[in-house]
Amino acid sequence: MKKFDITKHSLVPKHAKLSDKEKKQLLEKYNITLNELPKILANDPAIKDLGLKNGDVVKIERISKTAGEYEYYRGVVNA
Amino acid sequence: MDERFVYRKVKSIKFGIFSPKTIKELAVAKIVTPELYDKEGYPVDGGLMDIRLGVIDPGLTCKTDGQKLKESLGHFGYIELARPIIHINFVPVILTLLKGTCRECGRVLLQKQKMDTLKSELIVQEIEDGRAEKKGKIRDIVTLLKATNKCPHCKAKQLKITLEKPTTFMEGDKRLTPIEIRSRLEKVPDEDCEVFGIDPLSFRPEWAVLTVLLIPPVTMRPSITLESGERSEDDLTHKLGDIVRINQRLFENINAGAPEIIIEDLWDLLQYHITTFFDNEVAQLPPARHRSGQPLKTIASRIKSKEGRIRHNLAGKRTNFCARTVISPDPMISIDEVGVPMVIAMKLTVPERVTDWNMQHLKKFVERGHTKYPGSNYIIRPDGKKKKITDETKEQLLEEIQPGYTVERHLMDGDIAIFNRQPSLHRMSMMCHRVRVLPNKTFRLNPAVCIPYNADFDGDEMNLHVPQTEEARAEAQILMEVQTQLISPRYGLSIIGCVQDAISGNYMLTKFVTLTRNEAVDLLLSSKVTDLSRLPNKEHISGKEIFSVLLPEDFNFIGKSRGHTGNSEEDKKNDTIVLIKEGKLISGVMDKANLGDGSGLLLRTLHKQYGQQRTIEVLGKVFRLGIETLIKMGFSACLHDTDLSENARNKIYETLDAAYKDVDDFIKVFRDGRLEAFPGRSIAETLELKILERLNKARNETGSIVSKNANKASAALIMSDSGARGNPLNLAQIAGCVGQQAMRGKRIEKGYRHRTLSCFKKDDLSSAARGFIRSSFKHGLTPAEFFFASMTGRDSLMDTALRTPKSGYLYRRLANAMQDLKVEYDGTVRDANKKIVQFAYGEDNVDVSRSENGRLNVARLIEKVSE
């Protein structure tokens, strides 16, 4: 069986880890804790290979119908 | 009455079940007899209607609190059950407890250490993740326990326990009696309960098996006295009577030492009665019924489902001062008015407070009474007492009336009312209108507001509500008036526009018509336009000039009509470039793209520049102008609007013949095995696709032949071209060819074996045998064609009938799921827990209702800023 890298698929948006500094800025900007952030499972296929753990934040660059490009953030939680 | 209130904030609510001890403490009477009343009709002591439980008859006094009817809230009673009974609602809990604990020592089937760790994990989980996660964890523990078959404490072997629904528990092949079950549950220690998520203080496991039954107060099961003087008892009383009777029989039989089998039968019967007393809709039990056959409404059915207490009484609200009747159109009333029938206007009232300044005015209303419009129905004294105005009381009331009183006068022109049509799917389904009292018995509304209400006049009914306070009226006017709802928050364009005749009329006016000055003045005046100063002073006036009279003087606009191509030469020829300069329509025709709802920026721009009031005025005038144009010019669609020339007809036949021949060729190639399959398709599928494509093309060709050859000035074509009603496809089906009938995206295949109808050969794949209709509706269909048309007709009818409730429920779930999402001040969309759903509303932070079709007009914004 050929193995597919799903992150290369056109429908899977780019996921990237946020550095600690960026993470702090994000939480300060919206005045929130990690709890208020949308969640993503650590074993989600799209971020499985990034090696993330509980408490990390991923930045997702999505194509948006209304805004063109749109940045979304999700907090990683353990499965 | 002297009312004292204690204000406290509810911090938390905890649910539990009553212990037998609490039940006895709570109860004021022990019920021992199924009899209700003695010979005199007086409630029997120790019966179900015992007056210690409260009173439902006038004249009697409650023995417990000494209060009379409607004062005493009622009190609980109890009965001692001869044998324990399983409570139906706790069957699942009992089952998990039996399965998870030892049959000998009653401990949880877990090592002590393991249990302690699990317990602390549960506590942590509840604090961190909430109840739902804790429940999931408990479920996991329970499955683990079920697999254990040896007690780690006393080493006893565990037998398999099964539930025979609804209330029988089996251990192996032996039946467990409720007595045994209860004694086992008693053995479960308090600290072990917590593993199951049970708080032993409010829910001792053995309390789930009843030994005493709480009897609800008579006030929640009142009897009604029929006209014949007979008493009819509440369903709950009936059920309780059964319970008490069987319970007494069981007691007697046990005391008399009756055979075990009789006792068990009675025991099961008591179990049935008590189960149905709680819930008469248990899946495995036949519901208890009245003698007439209708099922009894017991406790659970009082609360549950749409007719239950919660959805019907608590979530469902009813109001006074409302009316409902059939609607009909009236384009001559303003868009923000609603026509109210006189009979309704004389029933609905508006309270008006009497002051020194309006007393004389209001006295006249009282004088006219409730029979003469505009009169009044009631007056309210300052102490809140309501008095009806009749011919007898009128004189006296007129004397009595003084400032501070309130007069409920009839509804009059200019009052405001909220108008609504169900299903109320968006906020435009409830709008505030000004009242216009009219003769006859239907609500009248301007056809332009049909679109937001999604109303038509095939028998639709609508509701009207009259706000009763100044505050409510102000709120309704500011937030809900039709003017404020012009721009849809869904797509940022006007949702109210011209429809039907108004579009055809304006299309004709701006495209073909030239009138004499007299005719033009006549037309404008009958459209209720009185300011004619802007009408050009010349002999002949074009339709565009007449239309321009309605526009604001300094209005500038560039837009497109329907059929705008972008090719400037063609557009010039077809007059599809809308150009308005200083309030004058220079070029372009007015059609659905400009005047219709949800299309074009004409209305949006008007709204932006001149505000809601002006827009609605212009819209009303334009609407009437269109209709008046049609009235003046005459407008009738008829069959020969679609007549074609001999030449055109022949062309259609040729097109169809060519398609038929191509299809036959495809089939021949297929039969010879020479057809090449498309990628990912079988040969048969490829053939189908090719045929479908070819026939579709042929139908489209006939369509364009019809459009090209039909008379452009005929009513049918005007309607289709302006977008008022009908489309070129409808015309093509009438004049050219109806086309392929498809079911599930395929040509028709069903019917007889190997063929669709018995008049075709087996395995006939030709066009006609698979539902292609080459005739036109005007020409008439062959029997086979008619049958095919009926097949798809039925199919689509079924489809709509099934889809409507489905999509309705889908919408309900969506609305319930999203109702507490909110845009916060930082621009994020968050739910009730302040968790982020979107980082920017709509991902682009645009408020659609302030945009133009969801986009911002940057050019104009810059212009505005630089001014």
Describe, in plain words, how this protein is organized in 3D.
- The complex is a heterodimer of chains A (79) and B (867).
- By secondary structure, chain A is of the alpha+beta class.
- Chain A has a single domain (12-77), classed as RPB5-like RNA polymerase subunit (Eukaryotic RPB6 RNA polymerase subunit).
- Helices cover 14% and strands 32% of the residues of chain A.
- Chain A has one helix at 20-30; strands spanning 14-17, 39-41, 57-64, 68-77.
- A four-stranded mixed sheet of chain A has the order 1-3-4-2, with no helix packed on it.
- In chain A, a hairpin with a 3-residue loop joins strand 3 and strand 4.
- Chain B is of the alpha+beta class and 867 residues long.
- In chain B, the strands form ten sheets. Chain B has a six-stranded mixed β-barrel with strand order 9-17-10-16-15-18.
- The model of chain B has no long low-confidence stretch (mean pLDDT 88).
- In chain B, 39% of the residues lie in helices and 14% in strands.
- Classes of the chains: A alpha+beta (79), B alpha+beta (867).
- The interface between A and B is medium-sized, with 17 and 16 residues.
Short summary:
The complex is a heterodimer of chains A (79) and B (867). In chain A, 14% of the residues lie in helices and 32% in strands.
Q: Could you give the topology of this structure?
A:
The complex is a heterodimer of chains A (79) and B (867).
Chain A: E1 14-17, H1 20-30, E2 39-41, E3 57-64, E4 68-77
Parallel strand pairs in A: 2-4
Antiparallel strand pairs in A: 1-3, 3-4
Chain B: H1 20-26, E1 29-30, E2 77-86, H2 91-100, H3 112-129, H4 131-147, E3 161-164, E4 168-171, E5 174-176, H5 178-187, H6 190-193, E6 209-215, E7 224-225, E8 231-232, H7 235-255, H8 260-278, H9 299-303, H10 309-314, E9 322-329, E10 337-341, H11 342-345, E11 349-353, H12 359-368, E12 376-380, E13 386-388, H13 391-400, E14 406-410, E15 416-420, E16 430-438, E17 443-445, H14 450-453, E18 461-465, H15 470-480, H16 501-511, E19 514-516, H17 517-526, E20 540-542, H18 543-548, E21 557-560, H19 568-574, E22 577-581, E23 584-587, H20 592-595, H21 602-633, H22 646-671, H23 683-709, H24 715-722, H25 728-735, E24 739-740, E25 742-743, E26 746-747, E27 772-773, H26 783-818, E28 822-823, E29 829-830, E30 836-838, H27 858-866
Parallel strand pairs in B: 1-2, 9-17, 10-16
Antiparallel strand pairs in B: 2-6, 3-4, 4-5, 7-8, 9-18, 10-17, 11-14, 12-13, 12-14, 15-16, 15-18, 19-20, 21-22, 22-23, 24-27, 25-26, 28-29, 29-30
Helix pairs in contact in B: 3-4, 7-8, 16-21, 22-23, 23-25
